[in-house]
Amino acid sequence: MSYKKLTLKDKETFDRDGYLLIPSFLEKEEVDILYGIAKEDPIINKKSYDRGDKEGLRTKLTLWYSLDDSIYSTLARCDRMVSGVEILLNGEAAHFHSKLMQKEPKVGGAWEWHQDYGYWYRDGFLFPDMLSVLTALTSATKENGCLQVIKGSHKMGRVEHGFSGEQVGADMERVEEAKERLGLVYVEMNPGDTLFFHSNLLHRSNSNRSESSRWSLISAYNKISNKPFKGTNTSSYTPLERVPNDYILKKKGKGMSGEADFKQK
Ligand SMILES: O=C(O)CCC(=O)C(=O)O
Ligand SMILES: [Fe+2]
Predict the structure, then answer these.
(1) For a tag site, which of 143, 174, 176, 219 has the least CB within 10 Å?
(2) pLDDT tens, 42-88?
(3) How does residue 133 score in pLDDT terms, banded at 50, 70 and 90?
(4) How far is the CA of 107 from the centre of ligand 2 (A)?
């Protein structure tokens, strides 16, 4: 099996656009394993919480900080993932947190415009030397609320964020102007496609009024030198232990352990 590997050309695309879409970063059998475990995972279900959008629709997620020996951590640690992230961060990477996003049919809520660094700035990270990696476990389409991004908006630097309902959202005056000048892209994805995006890229997603769920795994990474000056979680500056690429197919790792350091509801 030859697994996908990010190149310096990919880094040029990421630096220019603020995001990089890699089709079939995971093989079909790998997605089947991950999604199969996630759907039946009682701990994921128990530890999930939701966030309301402006219309009151709710989107469900489960978030944890430290990597462990679950199958989700196997993905976050696997060689192609970590080497890809390290090319894009231009340095050694640590794992900040991972989450399983569960946007359910008919009821899954929207995410307002934001930059991830808009949140993480408040967590005490000095530099935006951070990125998110979103892997689609199901198809993500316009209809079921796929991610939308403003191409190149990571070059704007950090935009002011305030509260928007139960979520934190970016200053809409700037978002509207950026949309106009830079253009909005709907990132439709097939299961197993992976999107790498810069922590200052403006993004959002619509609610899911369709019949199909949109599930994805997002892992956030930090450059190890960018240790936050506050907070208690150590994972964002702790060296990563990598695992070989074939560990997902070998089913190394099961569902979540109840002992993981979940974000409290
Ligand atoms: O995947 C989505 O719909 C957006 C989620 C997101 O941007 C986030 O959790 O920071
Ligand atoms: Fe985000």
Answers:
(1) 176
(2) 999 999 998 888 888 888 999 999 999 999 999 999 999 999 999 99
(3) very high
(4) 19
How many domains is the chain built from?
Answer: 1
* C-beta 111 within 6 A of ligand 1: yes
Residue 264 lies in a domain: no
Q: Which residues have CB under 8 Å from 87's CB, separation 6+?
A: 6, 7, 8, 10, 11
Pocket test for ligand 1, best of 63, 139, 205, 215 (most atoms within 8 A of CB): 205
| pLDDT tens digits for range 230-253 | 998 899 999 999 999 999 999 999
Please report whether residue 259 resides in a domain: no
Using CA positions, which residue lies closest to atom 1 of ligand 1?
147
Within a domain: 179: yes
Q: Which of 102, 85, 58, 76 is nearest to 260 (CA)?
A: 76
For residue 111, the CA-to-ligand 1 centroid distance in Å is 6
Expressed as residue numbers, the domain containing 53 is 8-240
The DSSP output letter for 264 is P
State how far the Cα of 144 lies from the Cα of 100, in Å rounded to an integer.
16
CATH of the domain at 23: 2.60.120.620
Residue 257 in any domain: the answer is: no
Strand partners, 164: 167
Q: What is the mean pLDDT of residues 120-140?
A: 98
Distance from Cα 204 to the centre of ligand 1, integer Å: 7
Task: Give me the residues near ligand 2 (ion), CB cutoff below 5 Å.
Answer: 116
pTM, 2 dp: 0.97
